[in-house]
Design brief:
Elements (H helix, E strand, L loop, with lengths): L1 E2 L11 E2 L15 H17 L10 H17 L10 H8 L4 E3 L3 E12 L6 E11 L13 E11 L6 E5 L15 E2 L3 H11 L5 H11 L6 E7 L2 E8 L4 E7 L5 E3 L17 H4 L4
Antiparallel strand pairs: 1-8, 2-12, 3-4, 4-5, 5-6, 6-7, 9-10, 10-11, 11-12
Helix pairs in contact: 1-2, 4-5
Length: 281
Protein backbone atom coordinates (compact mmCIF):
# COMPACT_ATOMS: atom_id res chain seq x y z
CA UNK A 1 0.00 0.00 0.00
CA UNK A 2 2.42 2.66 -1.18
CA UNK A 3 2.43 5.28 -3.90
CA UNK A 4 4.72 7.87 -5.38
CA UNK A 5 2.45 10.24 -7.27
CA UNK A 6 -0.93 8.82 -8.16
CA UNK A 7 -4.45 10.20 -7.81
CA UNK A 8 -6.61 8.95 -4.99
CA UNK A 9 -9.60 6.75 -5.63
CA UNK A 10 -12.68 8.89 -6.19
CA UNK A 11 -15.63 8.18 -3.96
CA UNK A 12 -17.80 11.11 -4.87
CA UNK A 13 -21.11 9.32 -5.50
CA UNK A 14 -23.24 6.59 -4.03
CA UNK A 15 -23.21 3.56 -6.31
CA UNK A 16 -23.83 -0.17 -5.86
CA UNK A 17 -20.86 -2.45 -5.59
CA UNK A 18 -17.53 -2.40 -3.77
CA UNK A 19 -16.30 0.92 -5.14
CA UNK A 20 -17.70 4.30 -6.10
CA UNK A 21 -18.01 5.59 -9.64
CA UNK A 22 -16.58 9.04 -10.55
CA UNK A 23 -18.79 11.78 -9.21
CA UNK A 24 -19.02 15.56 -8.91
CA UNK A 25 -16.19 15.69 -6.37
CA UNK A 26 -13.72 13.73 -8.48
CA UNK A 27 -11.55 16.79 -9.10
CA UNK A 28 -11.27 17.41 -5.38
CA UNK A 29 -10.10 13.84 -4.79
CA UNK A 30 -6.97 14.26 -6.92
CA UNK A 31 -3.93 15.15 -4.82
CA UNK A 32 -2.38 18.52 -5.55
CA UNK A 33 0.93 16.93 -6.47
CA UNK A 34 -0.84 15.13 -9.35
CA UNK A 35 -2.66 18.25 -10.54
CA UNK A 36 0.56 20.28 -10.36
CA UNK A 37 2.32 18.30 -13.09
CA UNK A 38 -0.51 18.92 -15.53
CA UNK A 39 -0.77 22.61 -14.63
CA UNK A 40 2.96 23.14 -15.00
CA UNK A 41 3.11 21.31 -18.33
CA UNK A 42 0.36 23.54 -19.73
CA UNK A 43 2.04 26.65 -18.33
CA UNK A 44 5.40 25.79 -19.84
CA UNK A 45 3.83 25.10 -23.22
CA UNK A 46 2.06 28.46 -23.23
CA UNK A 47 5.11 30.40 -22.12
CA UNK A 48 7.59 28.78 -24.47
CA UNK A 49 5.15 28.91 -27.36
CA UNK A 50 5.12 32.70 -26.99
CA UNK A 51 1.60 32.93 -25.57
CA UNK A 52 2.64 35.07 -22.62
CA UNK A 53 1.87 38.78 -22.71
CA UNK A 54 4.30 40.60 -25.02
CA UNK A 55 7.08 39.23 -27.25
CA UNK A 56 9.67 36.82 -25.91
CA UNK A 57 12.55 37.63 -28.23
CA UNK A 58 15.29 35.44 -26.81
CA UNK A 59 15.96 32.15 -25.11
CA UNK A 60 17.04 34.11 -22.03
CA UNK A 61 13.61 35.73 -21.74
CA UNK A 62 11.91 32.39 -22.14
CA UNK A 63 14.09 30.78 -19.48
CA UNK A 64 13.03 33.51 -17.08
CA UNK A 65 9.38 32.86 -17.91
CA UNK A 66 9.84 29.13 -17.29
CA UNK A 67 11.36 29.85 -13.86
CA UNK A 68 8.36 32.00 -13.00
CA UNK A 69 6.07 29.13 -13.98
CA UNK A 70 8.01 26.78 -11.69
CA UNK A 71 7.75 29.30 -8.85
CA UNK A 72 4.01 29.65 -9.39
CA UNK A 73 3.67 25.88 -9.36
CA UNK A 74 5.44 25.63 -6.01
CA UNK A 75 3.28 28.37 -4.52
CA UNK A 76 0.10 26.74 -5.79
CA UNK A 77 0.64 23.84 -3.39
CA UNK A 78 0.52 25.94 -0.25
CA UNK A 79 -2.96 24.73 0.76
CA UNK A 80 -1.56 21.19 1.12
CA UNK A 81 1.73 22.34 2.60
CA UNK A 82 1.76 20.81 6.11
CA UNK A 83 1.85 17.25 4.76
CA UNK A 84 4.51 17.78 2.08
CA UNK A 85 8.16 17.35 3.05
CA UNK A 86 11.02 19.33 1.54
CA UNK A 87 12.24 16.32 -0.45
CA UNK A 88 8.74 15.78 -1.81
CA UNK A 89 8.58 19.43 -2.85
CA UNK A 90 11.71 19.00 -4.94
CA UNK A 91 10.81 15.58 -6.35
CA UNK A 92 7.18 16.37 -7.17
CA UNK A 93 7.09 20.08 -7.92
CA UNK A 94 10.25 20.64 -9.97
CA UNK A 95 9.61 19.07 -13.41
CA UNK A 96 11.86 16.14 -14.24
CA UNK A 97 13.51 15.62 -17.61
CA UNK A 98 13.12 17.56 -20.81
CA UNK A 99 9.89 19.49 -21.28
CA UNK A 100 8.86 19.64 -24.94
CA UNK A 101 6.96 22.72 -26.05
CA UNK A 102 5.62 24.29 -29.20
CA UNK A 103 8.78 26.33 -29.74
CA UNK A 104 11.58 24.24 -28.27
CA UNK A 105 12.61 22.43 -25.12
CA UNK A 106 13.35 23.27 -21.51
CA UNK A 107 15.27 21.40 -18.84
CA UNK A 108 14.70 22.39 -15.20
CA UNK A 109 17.13 20.93 -12.66
CA UNK A 110 17.05 21.30 -8.87
CA UNK A 111 20.48 22.41 -7.65
CA UNK A 112 20.03 22.78 -3.89
CA UNK A 113 17.24 22.77 -1.33
CA UNK A 114 16.96 23.73 2.31
CA UNK A 115 14.29 24.19 4.96
CA UNK A 116 12.27 21.99 7.25
CA UNK A 117 9.25 21.19 5.10
CA UNK A 118 6.55 22.82 3.04
CA UNK A 119 4.87 23.71 6.32
CA UNK A 120 7.64 26.23 7.02
CA UNK A 121 10.10 28.32 5.03
CA UNK A 122 11.80 26.42 2.21
CA UNK A 123 14.32 27.39 -0.48
CA UNK A 124 14.93 25.58 -3.77
CA UNK A 125 17.62 26.58 -6.29
CA UNK A 126 17.02 25.57 -9.90
CA UNK A 127 18.84 25.75 -13.22
CA UNK A 128 16.74 26.38 -16.33
CA UNK A 129 18.21 25.54 -19.75
CA UNK A 130 16.12 26.48 -22.78
CA UNK A 131 16.58 25.72 -26.47
CA UNK A 132 14.21 27.62 -28.76
CA UNK A 133 13.50 27.06 -32.44
CA UNK A 134 13.42 29.96 -34.90
CA UNK A 135 9.97 31.49 -35.21
CA UNK A 136 8.33 32.00 -38.58
CA UNK A 137 9.00 35.29 -40.36
CA UNK A 138 5.24 35.58 -40.86
CA UNK A 139 4.66 35.85 -37.11
CA UNK A 140 4.23 39.25 -35.49
CA UNK A 141 7.28 38.84 -33.24
CA UNK A 142 9.61 36.69 -35.32
CA UNK A 143 12.97 35.73 -33.84
CA UNK A 144 15.83 33.38 -34.49
CA UNK A 145 16.52 30.24 -32.55
CA UNK A 146 18.70 30.34 -29.51
CA UNK A 147 19.49 28.98 -26.09
CA UNK A 148 19.90 30.25 -22.58
CA UNK A 149 20.83 28.84 -19.19
CA UNK A 150 19.93 30.73 -16.04
CA UNK A 151 19.71 29.86 -12.37
CA UNK A 152 17.12 31.00 -9.86
CA UNK A 153 16.42 30.77 -6.16
CA UNK A 154 12.82 30.06 -5.21
CA UNK A 155 12.03 31.20 -1.68
CA UNK A 156 8.79 29.79 -0.40
CA UNK A 157 6.79 30.34 2.76
CA UNK A 158 3.60 28.64 3.86
CA UNK A 159 0.49 30.07 2.19
CA UNK A 160 2.59 32.36 -0.03
CA UNK A 161 3.80 32.04 -3.59
CA UNK A 162 7.47 31.28 -4.14
CA UNK A 163 9.45 34.29 -5.38
CA UNK A 164 12.26 33.67 -7.92
CA UNK A 165 15.50 35.63 -7.88
CA UNK A 166 18.56 35.30 -10.13
CA UNK A 167 21.62 33.56 -8.73
CA UNK A 168 24.96 32.63 -10.35
CA UNK A 169 24.91 29.22 -12.00
CA UNK A 170 27.34 26.77 -10.40
CA UNK A 171 29.80 24.75 -12.45
CA UNK A 172 29.32 21.05 -12.90
CA UNK A 173 26.29 18.77 -13.06
CA UNK A 174 23.24 19.04 -10.84
CA UNK A 175 23.04 16.71 -7.84
CA UNK A 176 20.88 13.62 -7.95
CA UNK A 177 17.20 14.36 -7.47
CA UNK A 178 15.88 13.31 -4.07
CA UNK A 179 13.74 10.19 -3.84
CA UNK A 180 11.17 10.57 -1.06
CA UNK A 181 9.84 7.50 0.69
CA UNK A 182 6.61 6.22 -0.88
CA UNK A 183 3.45 7.45 0.80
CA UNK A 184 0.79 5.02 2.02
CA UNK A 185 -2.45 4.74 0.11
CA UNK A 186 -5.62 2.69 -0.14
CA UNK A 187 -5.64 1.02 -3.53
CA UNK A 188 -8.61 -0.25 -5.49
CA UNK A 189 -7.74 -3.74 -4.26
CA UNK A 190 -7.93 -2.44 -0.69
CA UNK A 191 -11.33 -0.88 -1.41
CA UNK A 192 -12.59 -4.19 -2.80
CA UNK A 193 -11.31 -6.01 0.28
CA UNK A 194 -13.05 -3.57 2.62
CA UNK A 195 -16.32 -3.97 0.72
CA UNK A 196 -16.05 -7.76 0.87
CA UNK A 197 -15.54 -7.68 4.64
CA UNK A 198 -18.49 -5.34 5.17
CA UNK A 199 -20.63 -7.56 2.94
CA UNK A 200 -20.38 -10.39 5.49
CA UNK A 201 -23.20 -11.21 7.89
CA UNK A 202 -21.47 -9.94 11.02
CA UNK A 203 -22.56 -7.08 13.25
CA UNK A 204 -20.67 -3.78 13.39
CA UNK A 205 -18.26 -5.06 16.06
CA UNK A 206 -17.52 -8.21 14.03
CA UNK A 207 -16.89 -6.14 10.90
CA UNK A 208 -14.53 -3.84 12.79
CA UNK A 209 -12.49 -6.76 14.14
CA UNK A 210 -12.20 -8.24 10.66
CA UNK A 211 -11.13 -4.88 9.21
CA UNK A 212 -8.47 -4.40 11.90
CA UNK A 213 -7.11 -7.86 11.18
CA UNK A 214 -6.94 -7.01 7.47
CA UNK A 215 -5.48 -3.51 7.98
CA UNK A 216 -3.32 -3.51 11.14
CA UNK A 217 -1.18 -0.49 10.14
CA UNK A 218 -1.05 2.33 12.68
CA UNK A 219 -1.64 4.99 10.03
CA UNK A 220 -5.05 3.53 9.08
CA UNK A 221 -8.19 4.67 10.91
CA UNK A 222 -11.11 2.23 11.15
CA UNK A 223 -14.61 2.92 12.44
CA UNK A 224 -17.86 0.93 12.16
CA UNK A 225 -21.42 1.70 13.24
CA UNK A 226 -24.81 0.01 13.05
CA UNK A 227 -27.13 2.16 10.93
CA UNK A 228 -30.51 1.78 9.19
CA UNK A 229 -30.66 -1.94 9.91
CA UNK A 230 -27.21 -2.52 8.46
CA UNK A 231 -23.56 -1.63 9.02
CA UNK A 232 -21.51 1.34 7.84
CA UNK A 233 -17.70 1.25 7.88
CA UNK A 234 -15.14 4.01 7.34
CA UNK A 235 -11.52 3.05 6.63
CA UNK A 236 -9.03 5.78 5.87
CA UNK A 237 -5.57 7.30 6.06
CA UNK A 238 -6.06 10.70 7.73
CA UNK A 239 -2.65 12.10 6.75
CA UNK A 240 -3.35 11.37 3.08
CA UNK A 241 -7.00 12.56 3.07
CA UNK A 242 -8.09 9.10 1.93
CA UNK A 243 -11.29 7.39 3.01
CA UNK A 244 -13.32 4.36 1.95
CA UNK A 245 -16.93 4.55 3.13
CA UNK A 246 -19.02 1.38 2.75
CA UNK A 247 -22.63 0.67 3.77
CA UNK A 248 -24.39 -2.71 3.93
CA UNK A 249 -28.15 -2.30 4.15
CA UNK A 250 -30.67 -4.59 5.85
CA UNK A 251 -31.09 -6.60 2.64
CA UNK A 252 -27.33 -7.19 2.36
CA UNK A 253 -26.70 -4.81 -0.56
CA UNK A 254 -23.36 -2.98 -0.38
CA UNK A 255 -22.88 0.60 -1.58
CA UNK A 256 -20.33 3.39 -1.27
CA UNK A 257 -22.16 6.46 0.08
CA UNK A 258 -20.94 9.71 -1.38
CA UNK A 259 -19.27 12.44 0.65
CA UNK A 260 -17.43 15.69 0.01
CA UNK A 261 -13.65 15.46 -0.07
CA UNK A 262 -13.39 18.66 1.98
CA UNK A 263 -14.78 16.69 4.94
CA UNK A 264 -11.39 14.94 5.18
CA UNK A 265 -9.43 18.16 5.66
CA UNK A 266 -7.93 19.08 9.07
CA UNK A 267 -10.55 20.47 11.42
CA UNK A 268 -13.38 18.71 9.58
CA UNK A 269 -15.17 15.48 10.50
CA UNK A 270 -12.52 13.27 8.87
CA UNK A 271 -12.90 9.66 7.76
CA UNK A 272 -15.76 8.65 10.02
CA UNK A 273 -19.02 6.73 9.82
CA UNK A 274 -20.64 10.09 10.58
CA UNK A 275 -20.08 10.90 6.91
CA UNK A 276 -23.07 8.59 6.42
CA UNK A 277 -25.00 8.74 9.69
CA UNK A 278 -24.67 12.50 10.24
CA UNK A 279 -23.18 14.10 7.11
CA UNK A 280 -21.83 17.63 7.64
CA UNK A 281 -23.17 18.90 4.30
Amino acid sequence: MARQNRPMIDRGTSTPGPWAAPGPWAALAVPQRARASAVLAVGLSLVLAGCAAGPLSSGDDRASAVAEEVAADVGAHSANAPEITLLEMVAWWVPEGTVYTGSGTALVEPLAWSGESAGSRATIDIRVAVEVDPSSSTQLFASGGGSATRCFRLEWEQYEQAQPSDIPCPDGPAPARPTPAPRPELTQADSDRIAAIVAGDGAAADVERALRDAFPQDFIRIETTAADGGVVAAVGIPAERECVLVFRDAAGAVTNPGFRQVSLEPGEIGCSTSLYTNPPF
